[in-house]
Amino acid sequence: MSSACRSPKPWRCSPATAFPSTPASAPAWRPAMRRMREAGMQRLLISCWPGECRAALLDAAGRLNRLLVHRDHHPASGAVHLARTRATAPDASGAFLDLGGGITGFLKRRARSRLPAEGAMERVQIQSFDPAEPGKAVRVARHILLEGRYLDLDPERRGVMFERIDDEGMPPLSSQRRQGLEAALSSIGERIGVRLKRAAAAVDEDVAAAEAARLDGHWRMVEAAMRSSSRQARRILAGPDGLMRAVLMLEGATPDEIRIEHPAVMAGAIRSFFARYPDLADRLAAHRESTPLFEAFGVEDRIATLIDGDWPIEGGGALHLERARLGWVIDVDAVARTARGDRQGLLAGLSTRAAQTAADLVRMLDLGGLIVIDFPTLSEPKARRKLAEHLAQALADDPLRPDCAGLNRHGIASIARTRRGVATASLLGLPGVPSFLHEEAHLFEDLRRLAGKARHVRTGEPLELAVGPSARRRLTDGGLLDRWAEALGVGIRLVGSRDGGIQGEAS
Questions:
Q1: Overall CATH class of domain 80-141
Q2: Would you state the pLDDT for residue 460?
């Protein structure tokens, strides 16, 4: 192991220190952009239905790089709330806040900052939420950041900032282009920080200015709510919807195609949305085939593999992924690959491939918090050190720069990765998540299957959907059933069922 990778505990290693070619000061987005270019990312798939939006990024070979699930009824990262302080944590590590709507937030104490007094009102933004932890407060922060494709607005700064463009390792902007962007955005930049992204270099100045004006309008809503005399805890700005999250998932890249599946009633709204992004609008293609979008491109099969808790390792073996109380556990299963030959050599080769596959899986599902990987036990210290370096290198391209605790003599590696957004893995209903999330995932799966049957139903003939009591409440309490009926253009009749599922066939 190189001296750059040594620490008081010899097996501890982090990507930022293990590889000098990726300096700790390097921007987190640079590796992500480079990796997407090298992978030849070709296609963004978006399946948008009432209450749920799913998106998948595929590379040129059709491999699944990223997966997103967004459901409207969960607390959304990026949403801004006017919150009332309930109490300070017993260890003074943070404060619990009432965000309104029955949502509790946790504001972590930062260095050189004071926690709000009990009863004080705070403006906060939701950072992350894991529906698999229903009793746990959502993570919030005082620092507000309004995200867009071409730029972000940062209320704590002023001026037009180019550091992200300058640091992304691509050809620099010409002085004329830089001056044009600065002139177009200077009026907003006088009041609020405008942080340009690389995607802004590919569009006209007025397109970037239009996004800045739209986000500035959102910020003005937040400011108006703060000036209001109302002290009611409530949401004052919704977070990005499913379509916007799919665009943000591109991290500034432009795919060769964006293929989208949606009901006809949503066509106008989707066209209006993509009209804001001319570099994406000409890549848009409607999916009109009878086979559902995710099924047509093999994504549904890969999701089914994940739900079973397995993910194949190239060359043999598999990863088993499961939700645990404190985070995620990935177990490397050698299956029958080590039955003959040099057992330790075969295990070392399998573990090296598994390290890259596990890093890809973590990024694909955007896993956050504590992630424990159980590798086969390698008896040689040199082999363990080499595997630790492979794992650190595999994680070095992750834009969230996770900390990797190397590998101990039992084959256990632990990763700490920043939580962000709403956990896609939990929404998929992977092994170990609470049963209500499995039920929720099955409900939306049944609704999507119902959409296929709606194409063959006679006019005026309702479809039957078999649901349990909790699914019935989910559909009826928030109007989701009516939205699906409108989207499908056919009535939906709910019938009782112990285990859910669609009953009968639509004629």
A1: mainly beta
A2: 67
